[in-house]
Amino acid sequence: MTNAPGNGTIHFKGTDIIILLLAVLLCVWLYFSLWFGQAIGKADTLIVQIDDQSPTEYSLKNDRLLKFNGRIGTSLIEIKQGKARFIHSSCRNQFCVFHGWLTTPGDTTACLPNRISITLKGYASEYDALAGER
Amino acid sequence: MKQLHFITTHEDHRVALLAALAITIHIIESAFPTPLPGIKPGLANVITLFCFIRYGWKTALQVSLLRVVISSLILGSFLSPTFLLSLSGALLSLLSLLLVQWPFRHHLKYQPSAIGYALIASISHISGQFLVAWYFFIPHPGLFKLLPIFITFAVLLGLVSGIITQFLVEPYKALPE
Prior knowledge:
The complex is a heterodimer of chains A (134) and B (177). Chain A folds into two domains: 11-40; 45-124, mini-chromosome maintenance (MCM) complex, domain 2 (Sandwich). In chain A, 19% of the residues lie in helices and 30% in strands. Chain A has two helices and seven strands; from the N terminus they run αβββββαββ. Chain A has helices at residues 14-35, 95-98, and strands at residues 45-50, 56-59, 64-69, 74-80, 83-89, 108-111, 116-121. In chain A, β6 (108-111) and β7 (116-121) form a beta hairpin. The model of chain A is unreliable at 1-5 and 125-134 (pLDDT under 50). Chain B has six helices and no strands. In chain B, α3 runs antiparallel to α4 (81-101) and α4 (81-101) crosses α5. Chain B is globular and about 55 Å long. Chains A and B meet through α1 of A and α5 and α6 of B.
């Protein structure tokens, strides 16, 4: 391959190929660590907000079932192995139930008709020291 | 009344010309719709890369700062979050280009070509924007779920802009500065 100017070919130097490989590796590593891993930190607290009451916190360490009374009925929230989910809510759409497990800090779901929202927090993780969304 | 006389050098003219090109590309590009906020081809970066490879980091810094400031003035986003994101991306990408070039500054043979530089520039550009966005605007850990997508697009679009830059740089290689 000649280096003649403007001959219409694409040249990859050795350094370019190394950089490209590193970039692809970075991509793959990011997918694995941020989508499938625990790089964001572990959640250890569940925060439940009912209507306009002040939020209450529950530890994720103990598996338990929580029952709350909201505007239109009861909602059942399950805490299991550091995760949390709605398993029943007396609303029509059941969006909160279909959301499934909340696993990482910052995960949020809500039953709007019943005015109950739950969020996971990880006080041990470094990112939550800065969290200013509440 | 005493008149002001500005003495402009050849380098000033070059910076002005290249900055004008970069601003034009930036503004045309901003009219295109994007699939995700933050993902765009970054073709204005081709000019910055061209400056960096052919004239060195000082010209590249001047051109990219001029591009960021003037195109934000034209688009009406000066000192807005968009402007801050644009500025942080441009500065971080130039800084990382310098960091990559530094170890090979006396070994031209081992320096990456336009494609390698473009990859570095696009990845660091989006990373800088992402960090600023996360730190100042949306401090929510869930934002990190978007990072792999951003980096994937950065690699793909970086390759494209690298190839364009290479076609731009090659014909000038034989010419003196």
